Amino acid sequence: MEMGKVLRYYRVKNGMSQEEVSESIVSPSYLSRIENNKTTVEKETLVLLLQRVGIDYEEIQSDEGKIEKLLHQWEEPLLDNRKDECERIYKELQPMIHPITNTQLQAEYHIKKVRAAIILNTYDDLDHSLRFMNDFYDTLSSRNRFFYYKHLGNYYWITNNAEKAKKYFEKGLAEYSSIHLSELEQADLYFLYALSLYVGRKETVSFSYAQSALTVFQNNYKPRQCLKIHIHIGICFSNIGDVHFALSNFEKAKTLAEEIDDMDHLGVIYHNMATMHLRKREISLSITYLMKAMKYKNQTSLSYFKSLVLLLFVYSQEKKTGECLKELNAHLHFADKLPQDNNLTKEFWFFYYFLKADEKEWEEYVKKVFLPSLKKHRKIQEMERYSRFLGEYYEAKGGYKKAASYYKLALDCNQVVDY
Predict the structure, then answer these.
(1) Residue 406 and residue 367 in contact, taking contact as beta carbons nearer than 8 Å
(2) Sign of the dihedral through C-alpha 356, 357, 363, 369
(3) pTM over cut 0.70
(4) Which of 146, 173, 263, 349 yields a CA-CA distance of 20 to 30 A from 328?
C-alpha cells in the first residue's frame, strides 16, 4: 500500500501541518518525501507517524487484505452472472474503497464494478469508474488488463456500440494467459466476441468462437452459459439456412432452460423454434410455439411484441382473420404504451391498419411511415418479408403493377428471411 499517500490524506483531513506530524519523529522535509513516496521508511517510524494522524497501521493492512480477498471472491459470481451474490460483495466492498486505498486495488475494483453494473443494471454511477480505469491504466497488471478489456467491451456491447466492443474483446484475447486466468474467463470472452462478430455479419467465425466457448462450459458444467450459446449457434445455422441444425441447438437450449428453470430464455427459445417450423411450412406447430413464447415473456416488453407481430404475420398469411383481430384487440392498450418510434410497434400498427382501416389509409401508412422506417433502420429482413406480403396481397387482388413493384423490392433485399 502507498503509505505516504495514506499519511498525507489523513494529515490534511485532520488539518495538521507537516511540522506538527513530524515533530520529534522525523524532519518536515523527510516527512514530505515520505508523503510523496520518494523514499522508503522503517515500519516503526511509519507506525508513529500514522498514530499521530489517528490511524492504526495494522488496521489499514488488514483492510487491504480484506479488499484483495473480496475482489477475488467477486470474480466467480461476476462470471456466472449471479445477481444476488454479486450485489452482496459489491455492498461489502463499496464502503472499503477510499481515495487512500492502494491504487491498483482501486483500479481492480472499478474494472469489476463495470461487470457488476451490467448484471445489476445500474449504470448511473459508472462515469467515475470509467475515468479512474483510464487514468490508471498504466498501473494494471496483465491479469487486470484482461478484465479491463473484457468488461469494458461488455459495457460497449450492452450500450449498442458493437464495433468498439469488438475491438476491446480482441485486445482482451491478446492479454489472456492460462497462468493467471481460468479457462472459463477465456470462454466467457470467446462468447462475447462471437456475439460481436455475428453483428458484423461474420457468422462462420462467430460460430467457431461460440463452439470453443461451448466446449469449455460443457466440460465445467455451466448450463446457463451453455443454453445461451446453443441459442446463438442455432441462430447462426438459421442464417445460413440449415434448419435441421438450428432446431437441434434450440432443442438443446430448451432442455437446459427447463432443467435450471430459466423461464426468461424459454420465451426466446420458443420464438426461434417457431421461426424454424415456419421455414418448414409447419404452420400449426409454429403458431403453438409462438403462443408458448408469449407465455414466457413479459407482456409489456418489446421481446413479447416481437413474437406477437410474427404471430399476426402468420395469421394474416394463412387468412386467419378472426384470430388476427382477436390478438390485435387484446393487445391494443399495450401497443399504445410502447415506444411509437420502434419498428416492432410499427409492425403491430401495420396489421391493425390492414384489418381495421380503409385501404387508402392503410396504403398511406405503409408508404409514408412503415416502409420508410424499416429502410431508415436498415431492417432488411423485415423489408423483404413485408414487401413479399404486399406483393402477394396485390397479386391476389389483381393489382399486378403494384404487386410487381413490391416483389422487386423483396428481391432487391436479397436476404435469407429470418422470421
Answers:
(1) no
(2) negative
(3) yes
(4) 263
